[in-house]
Amino acid sequence: MLALLPALALLPVLLVVLNGAHAGGTEILGSFLLGAVSPSMDPALLKALFIGLQVTVATALMGWGCSLVLGVLLGCLSSERLWSTWCLPQWPAHALHRLLALPRSVHELIWGLLLLQVLGLHPWVAVAAISIPYASLVARVWRDQLQSLDTSCLEAMLQTGATPMAACLTALSPSMGSVLVSYGGYRLECALRSATLLGLFGLGGLGMDLELSLKSLQFHELWTGLWLLMLVTIVLEQGLRIWRHRSGQVQFRQRQVLGFVLAVLFSAGLGAVWLAQLFPEAGSLNWLPVAWPDLHSLLLAAQELPWLPMLWETLMLTLLAAGIAIGLPPLLLLITPSRVLHRCVSGFWVLLRVIPPPLAVLLLLLSNQPTLAIGALALGLHNSGVMGRLLQEGLGEQNDSAHVALLSSGASPQVSWLYGLLSPRSPSHLAYGAYRSDVILRETVVVGLIGGSGLGWQLLESLSSFHWAAVLLLISAYSALTLLGEWLSDQFRQHWLQS
Length: 499
Fold this sequence. Notes:
CATH superfamily of the largest domain: MetI-like
Distance between the termini: 15 Å
Low-confidence stretches: none
Helix content: over 70%
Number of strands: 0
CATH class of the largest domain: Mainly Alpha
Oligomer: single chain
Largest sheet: none
CATH topology of the largest domain: MetI-like fold
């Protein structure tokens, strides 16, 4: 039941959204739904969307490749176990591990907006905005996996006279190769979503085309872009699913791991060449000087900012969106127990993952008043698409003997699904929900920039007015909040994984 109770967050959110809807919203929503079945096939539009898609994919590939390479290197350098293998003191690894918490605590959108201010509009800005936090996230996962490995084989090889480098490559590469392939594929999927999101805020790509179509109420053109993005997403997800399925059954050897590393490097190089061809006149990056605030400016900004309302709205956004993301997937699967309906729900998850939260907020604002519930609904639905997909994949791989036994004993499809399938799966679902809540806390800045609530809205206002003292304080507050959320999510995740 703990997997279903978070869905209660839908009640206050839907009440506020329905109460704030105005008369013109029905017509706008109908036009939006009609555009899904009659997307525009204008050749000029298709050409523009195809170019935007190329920018998004190239940015995602390069950002993914760079972040994966940097993340693995930083993860190795922040692992105390590897430092002790070389008989070196462990404090530099511990210090680096703590230092890497800062880049990942800042969302890639904030990195993009900051780099846009100091480097100007350039295709490399979006790549850097993805690479910086992603490299830190990869380093965290890689380091944690290294720390949790059984070192008996490594110690045995060292005692036989093997060099530390040879011992690490031979003893650790099979297990870490599987981690690299599985988690690396997941990060590629995230990079595609992040590249689309950055386009919504002026950093190029398909996201910019989607935003222009929505703001001009050209829903037929909007759905052309969404169907195109959905097609790419489905192809990528199916490829990664086959990839993960194989990596879960095969122990990777050194040659296979080396082949994957070469593929990552090739992807980064391909993305760089691709972007250079798409923007031949981009030139080199230019550093725009920024007047950093002094202590007096920081104190004045700290007194001016409405801290309590901002923090309260950010936390409420996180709690409501996390409740929707965690509780909606099992609730929908419970009320649609047949396989045919489950396939329809799978398509619904794909649609929710494809539509970026800022785009959903803009769409809802066309027929509703701006409230915190709008942002919570958009953010919750988007993340429920991710949670729902993982829940369905986990249920599909699970032993269904208890489910079949309950059905044979006369239990209803809902009860047999609830106790036979969801109940054994609920600890892992709640564990991932704890991690996803940490991600949602970072993503509140995305809907805050659009919906006018929380730290995100104030950050956008400060960036627009070049109020660097307020920007620095707001980013520091966001970092502290996300690091606290990361610690709490780790505690809850360990609790559910051990239950």
